[in-house]
Design goal:
The protein has two domains: 26-120, 2-Layer Sandwich (Phosphorylase Kinase, domain 1); 125-285, Transferase(Phosphotransferase), domain 1, CATH 1.10.510. It is 31% helix and 16% strand. It has helices spanning 85-94, 127-133, 138-157, 184-189, 198-218, 242-245, 251-261, 272-285; strands at 3-4, 41-42, 46-54, 59-65, 71-76, 105-109, 116-120, 125-126, 170-172, 177-179, 234-235, 238-239. The strands form three sheets. It has a seven-stranded mixed β-sheet. Helix 7 packs antiparallel against helix 8 (272-285).
């Protein structure tokens, strides 16, 4: 892998790669996506294929590496605009291999006139797209949420927070969850979160994990990070309990999602590790027979 950064950042060549919030703006022309189009090449190598998301600082694409023929995930930044320092720092951090459930950064040019960031293609499909077609059964929903949670616990143990988890940044392959944009998404969308104390960052990621469980159970998104899923129904500014939307859901899963999302909960009692424990307890309390939901569709599962 090669990383080209501004001269003020004196690090290059981070190894070699061998594999792998409410928003309806993707495709609109007011974001960074207006500077790029399908068929365009980044760095003369990565051909853009499908726009996945558009934001002020970058547009996100499914692309293909024309040297290897493999699909990649690409962030195309506005040309001629200096890349913020927090983005270059996130590139370096995200290039370091960690848990296999995080798609890492494999190439970047943050110093040239047409900056871009490229990462491993996670495989499978985004939760956002899968949920748009139908809901998994609650047992699989809880299993996916637990897999994402375990990965985020690993990241926090290494001192790294995501801070932009959403159904858009999590993919499901049928066997495991793969998380994209560790550090990168926050740097591009909400950089102020990167300077928060660790306890506050932990609470942010824990609430997002609960939001992912909520989305998997209901098809609605209660979080603040961008997603094309419909927002969760609010009652006095609070997402209604999942069982209010789908009464046949297991009460234990309803309770763990509701408690973690409660605005009155002390952030000091919220962390990915604490949510992992609560979710593990809830899964044990659930009845083992698989529940069938109202919009039954086939979700790939090797579990």
């Amino acid at each position: 892998m090669s990383v080209s950064l501004p001269a003020t950042t004196a690090l290059h060549g981070v190894g070699q790669d061998h594999g792998a919030g409410q928003d309806h703006g993707a495709g609109q022309d007011h974001g960074a996506g207006q500077y790029h189009g399908a068929g365009q090449r980044l760095g003369g190598r990565y051909r853009l294929q499908a726009l996945l998301a558009d934001g002020d600082r970058a547009s996100t694409w499914q692309a293909v590496d024309e040297r290897s023929g493999r699909p990649v995930l690409a962030w195309a930044l506005p040309p001629g605009v200096p890349v913020p320092v927090e983005v270059t720092a996130a590139v370096l951090t995200s290039a370091v291999p960690m848990d296999r459930r995080f798609a890492r950064i494999t190439d970047a040019d943050c110093a040239g006139g047409e900056p871009y960031i490229v990462g491993q293609w996670p495989g499978g499909r985004r939760l956002e797209d899968l949920l748009g077609a139908g809901l998994p059964d609650p047992a699989l929903a809880a299993a996916i949420a637990a897999d994402v949670t375990d990965a985020v616990v690993t990241a926090h143990a290494a001192g790294r927070a995501h801070l932009a988890l959403s159904p858009r940044t999590v993919f499901w392959t049928g066997r495991q969850a793969v998380i994209t944009g560790l550090g990168i998404e926050a740097a591009l969308t909400t950089p102020a979160l990167l300077t928060l104390p660790a306890v506050e960052q932990a609470a942010i990621d824990a609430r997002a994990l609960a939001g992912l469980l909520y989305a998997l159970l209901t098809g609605c998104w209660p979080g603040t990070a961008r997603s094309a899923l419909p927002p969760a129904t609010d009652t006095g500014g609070v997402a209604c309990p999942p069982r209010d939307l789908h009464p046949d859901l297991p009460w234990a899963l309803d309770l763990v999602a509701e408690c973690a999302l409660a605005p009155q909960r002390d952030p000091a009692t919220l962390s990915p590790a604490r949510f992992a424990t609560e979710l593990r307890t809830a899964r044990r309390a659930c009845d083992r027979p698989r529940h069938r939901n109202r919009r039954a569709v086939h979700w790939p599962s090797g579990l």
